[in-house]
Amino acid sequence: MLNTLIIGGAGYTGQELCKLVTTHPQLKLTHVFASAGSKNAGEPLPLGITGQIQDGHPDAIMAAAHDAQVILLATPHEASAALVPQLREHSDALIVDLSGGFRLEAGAYPQWYGFEHPAKELLAKAVYGLVGWNDKAIKGSKLIAAPGCYPTATLLALKPVMEAGLLAGLPIVNAVSGVSGAGKSNKPHTQFCEVSLAPYGVLGHRHQPEIAQHLGHDLVFTPHLGAFDRGILATITVPVKAGTTQAQVDALYQQCYGQHPSVHLSGDLRRQAPAIKNVANTPYAQIGWALDEARNLLVLASAIDNLLKGAASQAIECINTHFDFKLRPLPGYGWEAL
Amino acid sequence: MLNTLIIGGAGYTGQELCKLVTTHPQLKLTHVFASAGSKNAGEPLPLGITGQIQDGHPDAIMAAAHDAQVILLATPHEASAALVPQLREHSDALIVDLSGGFRLEAGAYPQWYGFEHPAKELLAKAVYGLVGWNDKAIKGSKLIAAPGCYPTATLLALKPVMEAGLLAGLPIVNAVSGVSGAGKSNKPHTQFCEVSLAPYGVLGHRHQPEIAQHLGHDLVFTPHLGAFDRGILATITVPVKAGTTQAQVDALYQQCYGQHPSVHLSGDLRRQAPAIKNVANTPYAQIGWALDEARNLLVLASAIDNLLKGAASQAIECINTHFDFKLRPLPGYGWEAL
Amino acid sequence: MLNTLIIGGAGYTGQELCKLVTTHPQLKLTHVFASAGSKNAGEPLPLGITGQIQDGHPDAIMAAAHDAQVILLATPHEASAALVPQLREHSDALIVDLSGGFRLEAGAYPQWYGFEHPAKELLAKAVYGLVGWNDKAIKGSKLIAAPGCYPTATLLALKPVMEAGLLAGLPIVNAVSGVSGAGKSNKPHTQFCEVSLAPYGVLGHRHQPEIAQHLGHDLVFTPHLGAFDRGILATITVPVKAGTTQAQVDALYQQCYGQHPSVHLSGDLRRQAPAIKNVANTPYAQIGWALDEARNLLVLASAIDNLLKGAASQAIECINTHFDFKLRPLPGYGWEAL
Amino acid sequence: MLNTLIIGGAGYTGQELCKLVTTHPQLKLTHVFASAGSKNAGEPLPLGITGQIQDGHPDAIMAAAHDAQVILLATPHEASAALVPQLREHSDALIVDLSGGFRLEAGAYPQWYGFEHPAKELLAKAVYGLVGWNDKAIKGSKLIAAPGCYPTATLLALKPVMEAGLLAGLPIVNAVSGVSGAGKSNKPHTQFCEVSLAPYGVLGHRHQPEIAQHLGHDLVFTPHLGAFDRGILATITVPVKAGTTQAQVDALYQQCYGQHPSVHLSGDLRRQAPAIKNVANTPYAQIGWALDEARNLLVLASAIDNLLKGAASQAIECINTHFDFKLRPLPGYGWEAL
Known about the structure:
4 copies of one chain form a homotetramer.
Chain A: E1 2-7, H1 12-22, E2 27-33, H2 58-66, E3 70-73, H3 77-90, E4 94-97, H4 109-113, H5 120-125, E5 127-128, H6 135-140, E6 143-145, H7 149-163, E7 172-177, E8 198-199, H8 207-215, E9 220-225, E10 232-239, H9 246-257, E11 263-268, H10 276-279, E12 285-292, E13 297-304, H11 308-323, E14 327-329, E15 335-337
Parallel strand pairs in A: 1-2, 1-3, 3-4, 4-6, 5-6, 7-9, 11-12
Antiparallel strand pairs in A: 7-10, 8-9, 10-13, 12-13, 14-15
């Protein structure tokens, strides 16, 4: 059992991490710290899990980190960027950071996150935790940046087409996220009566460069907020190479994901489509596709739970991949031997 | 006061028509008939309106039609296509059909609606009721096909760009509709627990040819069902002519809609965006835009209430246009002199 | 046309007042002021209504009040209590206050509202605006306290039984309100993801003394917050005099409300029940009842829109009653001659 | 590992059973049958669980039952009542029936379920599976009737007061259920747009006699349907013996549930209250209370997930109790050694 530490345990993602670690056969949840400066210390852990959030004083964190084999960070972006170098000094543990603090190239931080990255050397060594597509790097690194929620939904759908060399133009990505994606803090635009379906971050969301960098291709990304708690649906329209057939696309997705432990295929979108209700509160992605052979246009749909596959459960899958734990996520928060 | 007849008054759209006619200063609601074969005869009209749904026996309808100046049809597509010729025989009234029975060219009906159109001559004379863009035809015809909900949201957003000659490629339209768009009848996929955000009708929805025909340009249209009662949000990504500027687009939308009684502009999407909550239960469209000048890509967002601006209130605006009633729709169901 | 002034026009209730006054045949909306100290000055009025929120500087308010015949206050409780005496000095207008500032006896304010009432003489002259039950007083007073949302739903259901002398024990009132009842300000517990069905204010909500005082009988009142925007459903269980019959109760409600312009009866709850969807976005209450003749227990259900019948539209009905305008509220925001 | 059979696996409860059995360390899911006559045979099991629904032909069921140690029935009430005697002939397995087919006394079936019970001898031997309150009987019987959803929420809250002899009058139970409680079949009143908060089954719901029988006291029970997927909140107002104190009630609930693996206490309702969001998608109940010492009235609130603690997870807890498996349900669907 690996001693496991969660920092930033009071937020929506942190709470999911607590449940996923508790049910994990190889991880032992030793400490759950609040983010520095938060007022959540002393709060109970999620219903059904014994314990409480500890005050995130740096000394306490570093002492716990020293004895940990796994450290999960669900802290704000800039906090993660500052914390990881300190943790690395005190600990050899595998660090999985769920913030945006280690996902982009150093030069992109001032524009997209508003700060100069304080740990460029570590950033250069961080690997992107897109499970199934970057596993060799995940196995080989002690610092993993778990992908963002929109990038996970988008990249899982687009990677097969990109890697197969079928992409022939700009993907147009329209995605809708549940409100938990905005985090737990108090914001006027996430008050209950203020939420309804609307686009935001048009032509300027920081997940656009994250997707572009890890896809290796430019795109148009338009996120939306929807009036539901959890889940993301990304619908993608993308030109493909002339002559591509539906049968070819069927085979491609089957080959990439037919045996995948956490990506499920719904098949041709004209018959059945991914839906938020199929994946909310699960660690699974669900992907469907439909090719317009006459116009060489591929429509993709990809659904995930933003807090699980889009954050916490993918972070645990990174741990499984790194340590070669042969585990499959069960519905809810459990893990089953493959 | 014009005697006004509603056929198909028990459905969601029919109920909204009842309220809009009741509050109208120039219309007198004389009869509300159920669709033929429905079991709704005898049901009360919406709360606050005296009267009940009458049995839709053809004799009763034709007698009432004879004395009417306005006939509103909220009947199923094929029922409308069959009913309009009979009504025309018995009545000189303005007929506004809210179904899809008179929106497409005759040749398109077998593929998209599954029937050979029974009234091709009348269909050839029917005009498309897109208020603000087809007003001369609306004034001149006694048979108006009120536009579909998705086409209304999409066309109101795209028409300015199209008519200004700025369109330079295939518009990608992603739209999400509330569940009332699926009508009132009992369907497994609209059971409460079965609804969540998901695409449907991918590459094969009948509103695609409707939009294409009345826009005059092909497009990709992907509709979605969302877990809310009312409203449509369409998000559109479209290539525009190189060199187009944001200022030019700002001016274009101001010119088209700055004084429009039922289309409101939210402006640059990077600052403020249309939202379902802004238009649900109102007769208004809300439109925003953002131009990526570097990539010559325009992102448009358009929000309407699918039952009002996407159906019933636009139908009444057709009447206002036809008879030259100078009226502006108020929030809710009222009308104010311009 | 009476010059009408709204103070506190930026909140949810204030916005509804704007729409209701705009559509009113006898009222002319002259000014909409922000609450003192709010940052809403300069914001546009609701979609479809021309104008904007004015800064609520006392001098500007008093100048406008001087020329007004009607003043509507949708300000916080303590602000209303302080503002009304100043308004009275500058104006003879009918004042309708929608806050809790003039609903209780003076002695109750420190306990329930946390302040000593600053205008006890005016408070003593204020009348309770429960339309249909206090009309003579409403006609005779220039200061009307519009009832709270929960009290409106509860009192409309219980008054017939109480006044008929059938009440024989403590009414148990369980009510669920939509989130707009908590107002527009930013609160952690009304963040979208934090809202679900839960009781609050148990044994200590300030609407308990309001109901008790205006019913003339003690009760148990347990409010709940539900995950929806608008509407209140109150379900009431109350012992009645032995020997009461269902037929007697049927007749009683028909007599009280059979001709009422804004209270609709759904009849025996065993056949049909009031529902939030029937009344949301309408100015109507819907009431049903079922008598357990064996146990002498009456179950009542009462549904309203908390922002309309529970606030703004009842406030306008107070104006109608005071000035003897013979008007019936239409679905949405319109008014029709009786 | 005990061979475990699910009959009626395609409904909402059946799907939850599949997940709970899959994650259980002592149970092996061998067969999932459709209810007789359903069209669900061939459908896949829930996302993440390998396998499909089998056709529920009696021969296949009886053959599987012969080799099973545990049989879970999520079949309709009358189907369960008919099926249990046949299963008993072919199998010694522990049978847990989640329908209402074995919860009431034989004489109550014609009135409340509309059929004469076909297996009165077995019914007389069936025990009520209210875990924590009927454990000795659950250990001793091979036929367990898992409690209904409303009865679970209500009885868990009321049992402590009843058993302590504090109950001094008729409990008034108001409860709101999510729509999944109405099952998966297609019904007009559970269409998405038709659902909102409303009472139903007033003075005539079949869970009233179930609660009364297993509480040992009459009550008034008013259920409501709310516009959400999962969860039940029951709010109960009940007279208690004069002189009862809040401290006494605090101690009573701590004593009954302080160590309970699936009942959590939120404490005094005036400080914190149970909420649907706390328990939805979990196997936990959450209970709070507040005593009005002046009026000797106790207000209780009890929240559960109707499909889990109100059905499937309590059924598994019955198995744990019967076989003395020392397990605690984890958040989601997992189980942990006590």
